[in-house]
Amino acid sequence: MKRAGDLSTPRSGRSLGIHYDPEAFGRFSEAIARTLGTARFLVLQTGLVIVWISVNVVAAALRFDPYPFILLNLAFSTQAAYAAPLILLAQNRQADRDRAIAEQDRAVNARTQAETEFLAREIASIRLALADVVTTDDLRDAVDRLAAAMERRP
After folding, report:
1. Residue 72 neighbours by CB distance under 10 Å
2. Distance (Å, rounded) from C-alpha 114 to C-alpha 93?
């Protein structure tokens, strides 16, 4: 009888032997989402649908998908079935990037605020120190008072 391993961790699932690079798959999904989300794709798809319907309605000899256009509907369903999860994956990756950028921005803002507060304290201490510094006017007044005191002395 086999002994169970550490019960505090879940058992690893059984792998079907399918291994893929999540980063590469994510980049692929972003490329698909970028392609499907363009005006160019919509115009090309609209043109293809117009040609498809025109050929199947007008040209009886070339008719390969008669009216209710089952094959065209199947193509759209397949496209939607694959496009929707790929677009969601691309959006999740973008949300992760946005979250990371926001976290970096918060860290930079916190450092900037700390540095600004430090500099404000330094400027305040310099102002306080400069308040006690003797100026030339102070020296001139002191010399004038000393000279006046010396003149009054007999």
Report:
1. 15
2. 32
Q: Is 25 left (phi over 0), alpha (psi -120 to 50) or beta?
A: alpha
Residues of the chain where predicted confidence (pLDDT) is lower than 70: 1-5, 12-16
pTM: 0.56
Domain ranges of the chain: 22-152
- CA pair distance 49, 79, nearest whole angstrom: 14
How many Cβ atoms sit within 10 Å of the Cβ of residue 29?
Answer: 21
Which amino acid, one-letter code, is at 33? A
Residue/partner pairs of 9-14 with CB below 8 Å, 24 or more apart? none
CA angle 146, 152, 154 (to 5 degrees): 120
H/E element, 96: helix 70-131
- The pair of three-digit structure tokens given for residue 36, joined into one six-digit string: 């499907």
Q: Which tokens belong to 133?
A: 């510094």
Query: Tokens 């700390």 label which residue?
Result: 114
Half-sphere exposure of 85 (CA within 13 A, CB side): 5
Residue the block writes with tokens 């005191």:
149
Largest CA distance in the chain: 136
